[in-house]
Amino acid sequence: MKRAVVLGALIAAGGLSLAVSAYQQPQGPKTVEVDKVKDNLYVLKGGGGNTAVFVTANGVVVVDAKNPGWGQPILDKIKELTPKPVTTLINTHTHGDHVSGNVEFPATVDIIVQENTKTNMEKMDIFKQNNGKGMPKRTFKDKMTVGKGADEVDLYYFGRGHTNGDAFIVFPALRAMHAGDIFASKNMPLIDSNNGGSLVDIGQSLQKAHDTIKNVDTIITGHSATTMNWQDLQDYATYNKGLVTWIESELKAGKSPDDIAAMGYKVPETLASKGFTANPPSLMGGMKGMVQGVEAEMKK
Ligand SMILES: [Zn+2]
Description:
Blueprint: H1 2-13, H2 17-24, E1 33-38, E2 41-45, E3 51-55, E4 60-63, H3 71-81, E5 86-90, H4 96-99, E6 110-114, H5 115-121, H6 125-129, E7 138-140, E8 143-146, E9 153-157, E10 167-171, E11 176-180, H7 199-212, E12 218-221, H8 230-252, H9 257-263, H10 269-272, H11 286-298
Parallel strand pairs: 4-5, 5-6, 6-7, 11-12
Antiparallel strand pairs: 1-2, 2-3, 3-4, 8-9, 9-10, 10-11
Helix pairs in contact: 1-2, 7-8, 8-11, 9-11
The structure holds zinc ion (ZN).
The site of zinc ion (ZN) has 4 residues, from loops.
């Protein structure tokens, strides 16, 4: 729950990223923890969303850059892992706990995001305050490939979910992927409707990712402490489709968002037994906000 609160606070504050970071970050050293996922793939934890570090023949590809002030700690930690320069930075989506560190990366670094995420980032104060430093230089719509052979990185977009620009970043040679916050944990999703997110669509988008991407067995999620596997992605698609089906059926039966929020969602036993939970997000209106989002889409 603590993570959800911090994540939600960042998102809810939107442009007030400086105020939020002051509130949200304790004073003192910014400690980045390293998990080795493969010989040349690491997860850097702490200070916001999970950061992936992929060491290629000629340089380092980084996925996500954490909260304000955490860009330099990421760069310092990478120096302990490899002498190679950072060449590429990919952001999974627009949120402040995934993109704010961008402004601390060298101007030479190529920054790539899904095209809707670039539009969302253009609204963020941190990039305005830094005269556009850290903004994406390249975008993709549905798929992009960077590098080749052992160094290939594939970027995919499968539709709305946590936002309207959630990228899945695949490292084919390592059978590994960073899923960002469209798969942040085995809990209820956080749906950022102000940035185009959709509870109605998230299950389908996750299902398309599962059915389209091949040969991956290790998933770095947006925030969980450990990696997930390919079956977990299928289960999370199933979870979200079941959640929205339940909300839609209760709305059709005449229940109000307040009624439905009070009832709470019961995770099917097949998923509960695998560790899936139903704690509503603590911000963005919580469970009621999620139901209202579905209600608004049903009226369209
Ligand atoms: Zn997010």
